[in-house]
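Reply to dn_fold:

You asked what the input looked like. This is it:
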Amino acid sequence: MSAHEPQLNPIPIKTLRPTQITVGFREVSEKRRQWRDQAGDKGSEFLGKHMVPVVWGPKERHYVVDHHHLCRALHEEGVADILVNVVADLRRLGQREFWTYLDNRAWCHAYDGEGRRRGFDDIPASIAGMTDDPYRSLAGELRRAGGYAKDITPFSEFIWADFLRRRVKPKLLADNFSAALTRALKLAKDETSSYLPGWCGPNPIV
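and this is what came back:
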């Protein structure tokens, strides 16, 4: 199968393999809300516009390389199947070289909810097995609030999440999300974050 060729037969969501350890549970809740708004007459159209990019890997398994939050949301909403887009056929690779290849292509994110690098074996075997990273939720909300622009850099939201993790206290994030977002917005406009993907802070006139 060539790259970017749609898989016409729907794939059961429960068989999809994630390529990251965490998602932001608040982000998943937002995706669930969006799905419920579309699930009636527009449900099929919504799914047709949101095909999930996957890599065809060892043992004929499909590994998700984007839209993890959507997959998790649809799974929690009881959606059984989803259309996928195969972006690479890596079925001939062994398990170790498969993950090394994905890592080198920035197609996997083996970091836990505290921002620590983990082994590939720690990446869960199912969409339902991914755990929460609240800073990923904060980074997603920060982007929607205009804190930074959408960017093609792989895992750009996780890069922002790691930046925020070091500057927004966990207790503030847990107890008062709105205050944490206000703090994040201030940080996003500061020059200390100017190296991050999608930064759109003020540029001083020289």
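The mean pLDDT is 92.
Hope that clears it up.
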